[in-house]
Amino acid sequence: MLKNVLHPGQILNQLFLEPRKISINELSKQIDVKQSRLSRVIKGKQSITSELSLKLADLFQTQPEFWMTLQANYDQRKHSRGTDNPFYKLMKISGNAILKLIGVQSYDAYETRAIVLKEKRLKPDIVVYPKDANHEIVMIEFQGYKEPMMRYLMASKMSLMCAQENYTGPILGAIVYTDKQYKDAALPFSIQSESGQSYIQGEFIEIVLSTYTEEQLIDIDEKLVILAPFTLPKNYPKDEYVLKYRQWRRKIDALFSEKTVHEINNILSLFIMDRQRNMTIKEINAMYNFNIAETPIGRELIKEGRIEAEKESEKKVATKLIARQMAKKFDINLRRIMPRLKPLRTDDLMELGEHILSMASFEDAFQWINHRKKMIKMAAV
Length: 381
Prior knowledge:
Elements lengths: L7 H13 L3 H8 L3 H8 L7 H11 L3 H13 L9 H16 L8 E6 L9 E6 L6 E7 L6 H16 L5 E7 L2 H6 L4 E3 L6 E3 L3 E4 L5 H7 L17 H18 L2 H18 L5 H8 L7 H13 L5 H17 L3 H8 L4 H11 L5 H19 L1
Parallel strand pairs: 3-4, 4-7
Antiparallel strand pairs: 1-2, 2-3, 5-6
Helix pairs in contact: 1-3, 4-5, 6-11, 10-11, 13-14, 14-15, 14-16, 16-17
């Protein structure tokens, strides 16, 4: 725990929960997050993720950026470790894919660590150490802003790392830029005296994510789909971006284990929030909650639906799933809902399921249903 730096969880507790006399148990029920997880956040043992920031923002009428900024500022001041860097987390979970991206052949012969170059107070770097003495050390820097001295900084970090570790063997330096403009802004690395008798020069492996297509990344390694947001322009159409996000989530769910998929999806969300800053909070919220099957309620309902699907038609199952979801969220009787859903088609029902999570009340849901009924009638004329 950092001295004199409040964890966002402590701020949540002191400024939002205690004044309103809201217990962790009550908060857990209101935002549908496990009590154990909230307890770790409030104790400063777990970060506030993008998903949690959206739920807190909705409950306390704040902006999600408020919570994400608190977390980012806290992480930035944690000079003693680099494990909160999303790229470091990505390397720990899927480091082999990143090593393939920068061209390391024996990618399975390494393990990822974070180091802190204490003497110059430089930010933590990702260093991939070989498991045996037959391979070189790999140092990776991820760069997401303009820094003219980037290559100088990389060279100094590599030198400091060697001095700190008493290492004199081979080392490979790689810089992964999220955008071409950041690479273009970096000056060539060259230090020399006027006489030319003293000089230091060097080059690094440099990757620019925005110059790749999603297909090219996946050809290198399927798990590089996590970096797909950087392959799209920042002005990419919002509607199409939502569809892309859905595709990425499906691939991630299929590729990663249950133990790591939640963390990978959080990293994906952070990349998207950084990349698509022109999207409104409502649009981001709708995108993150597009699939009812990804919520605890949705999983429960889908499980029940699969059993019932053996006996009933697809539309009947969909109607029951959506009706139960509405009844549970808005605390209203199923008998009030079922007749309203009957005129809807299966596609309408599933689309309604996508929107329910972002609706504030059952009036919003009924208004959506009535509007869709009118559209169906008009189409039939």
